[in-house]
Amino acid sequence: MVSMRPLFDYKTCRVLSLVWMAIIFLLSSIPRLSAPSLFSGQDKFIHFVIFGILGFLFAHSFKPGGGKVPFFRALLITLMVAMYGGFDEIHQYFIPGRVASMGDVAADTAGGFLAAIIFWKN
């Protein structure tokens, strides 16, 4: 099995989590932001990846306790990503040209969940 040793210590990952959240917030503040359409479902895939990265950063930001990540921590990481995804969609609701979507929150949560499960299993 591949070891999931972080590149940075948990304190650095906490800062990187906040930086990544700020980047998400800034990008969602841009009216009418769009990417070139390459395939169907691209929007959900982008949400999945961006919030999956946030899930990885959250997972690494917990103080290491040795061994596997407890299942409770995986659920907590998923909840944290879902809450930030929901916050981001509420924020987008007030940005001209942007649309709030529960589908986006679902994609955000799925990305965070996958990251959390990977860390739970390793």
Tag the structure with descriptive keywords.
122 residues, mainly alpha
Short structural description:
With 122 residues, the chain is mainly α.
Describe the structure.
With 122 residues, the protein is mostly helical. The protein has a domain at 45-122. Helix content is 66%, strand content 0%. The chain is built from four helices and no strands. It has helices at residues 10-28, 42-60, 71-93, 102-121. Helix 1 packs antiparallel against helix 2, helix 2 packs across helix 3 (71-93) and helix 3 runs antiparallel to helix 4 (102-121). The chain is globular, with a radius of gyration of 15 Å.
Ordered list of secondary-structure elements with their pairings:
Elements lengths: L9 H19 L13 H19 L10 H23 L8 H20 L1
Helix pairs in contact: 1-2, 1-3, 2-3, 2-4, 3-4
What's the SSE pattern? HHHH
Shape: globular
Low-pLDDT segments = none
Largest sheet: none
Q: Calculate Rg over CA atoms.
A: 15 Å
